């Protein structure tokens, strides 16, 4: 019989930083006036641009240029479902999550709250990892395996897995592997995968967690998201049309801050690493982290790349009801329009 996983103590024991507020603990809030912004991020280097924005107080900087003092509130959640719930309940203004959760909430709110993406957080390969030596491809997973994802069926990792399953077995079986997935935050899933001896044998991860896990010789890559979709922007920031329209100065300050953060991180990755370590207090060696983000497949940019194939796929298999004509349907186009795909 497989062992159950005591996730949080295990993560703490091997030095993986973990701070989590469950979606139900984010108290609903009423609409607020211009000059306040509440941002929800998740875990990993994919959120580094937000770390830079926070560390350098860039939203506050650009707010002053607009003539307002901006109060910024930061929240950390795990999983697209929790993030979407927080956004729709009015608990946050800017949601950080994968393209999968974005497309779900865009589809759900079309003609109502009209949630759309503000920007990408960059291009990153995500790895499906496994510590079961018998699993070489996704076709090798069995009832004995469990795969950790941030949110079952909704997270971008879940959607990548479904996309890969559809390529393997056809669209009708796109959700064939969903029954093997569990919702587990990245730090805990990483700890469980490294430790072994539990029911969790797989983890669709992101950097730096996937790189930390791969330091264990028992862990190997089963699937690289770039091999499925090509280089792409897996994680984005999104907001409601109401927040954007009613807080134009605050929204503009946020966009300008994010753009400066992307330029900073792309130009000086050493300084970006220092920022990540300072803000997240992650227990990871600086040289190791720098090696991770020096990967030429990683790019820090606010312009989305190659998101539309996933949108087309989700419509094709019935996961979303509305088919976007292009990526521009689910991204806001501001004064400086994004150049994406």
UniProtKB/TrEMBL annotation:
<dbReference type="Pfam" id="PF13379">
    <property type="entry name" value="NMT1_2"/>
</dbReference>
<feature type="signal peptide">
    <location>
        <begin position="1"/>
        <end position="33"/>
    </location>
</feature>
<protein>
    <submittedName>
        <fullName>Taurine ABC transporter substrate-binding protein</fullName>
    </submittedName>
</protein>
<keyword id="KW-0732">Signal</keyword>
